[in-house]
Amino acid sequence: MQRELERQGLATVGLSLLRKLTERVKPPRTYYLRYPFGHALGEAGNRDQQRQIVRDALSLLETVTVPGTIVESPYRWRRTRFGPEASSSGA
User: Fold this and answer.
1) Alpha carbons 68 and 12: distance in angstroms, whole number
2) Most buried of 31, 34, 77, 80, CB within 10 angstroms?
3) Containing domain of residue 38, as a range?
4) What span, in angstroms and rounded, lies between the C-alpha atoms of 38 and 7?
5) 42 is a domain residue
6) Would 67 be classed as within a structural domain?
7) Quick one: pLDDT band at residue 74, thresholds 50, 70, 90?
8) Could you give the angle at the alpha carbon of 83 between the alpha carbons of 81 and 87, nearest 5°?
């Protein structure tokens, strides 16, 4: 689906929880997260986390120039803090 949308001139970015499968399928650009199935945008109710993941994924539309690129998220499930409670050390 992503390839067809791209062919029509619409840039896309996908979220992936399965890196090996993504490497085989080779979508145009992908944001890979080491999160459990069903939680591609993070923990339920954690809006700060979900917003940051969406922002990071959308930023790939501007930064990824090589088709098939997979960018791995620096965040770790339930280890990275987001929003006001985040430490100054970052993600």
Assistant:
1) 11
2) 31
3) 2-79
4) 29
5) yes
6) yes
7) very high
8) 50
Distance CA 9, CA 37 (A): 30
State how many domains the chain has: 1
In angstroms, rounded to a whole number, what is the distance separating the alpha carbons of residues 56 and 31? 8
**DSSP 3-state assignment of 15?**
strand
R_g (Cα) of the chain, nearest Å: 14
Note the pLDDT tens digit of each residue in 19-57. 999 999 999 999 999 999 999 999 999 999 999 999 999
Does any domain span residue 86? Answer: no
Which residues are within 8 A (CB) of 70 and not within 5 positions of it... i.e. 6 or more apart?
16, 19, 22, 23, 29, 30, 32
Has residue 53 been placed in a domain?
A: yes
**Phi and psi angles of residue 4, each rounded to the nearest 5 degrees, phi first:** -65, -45
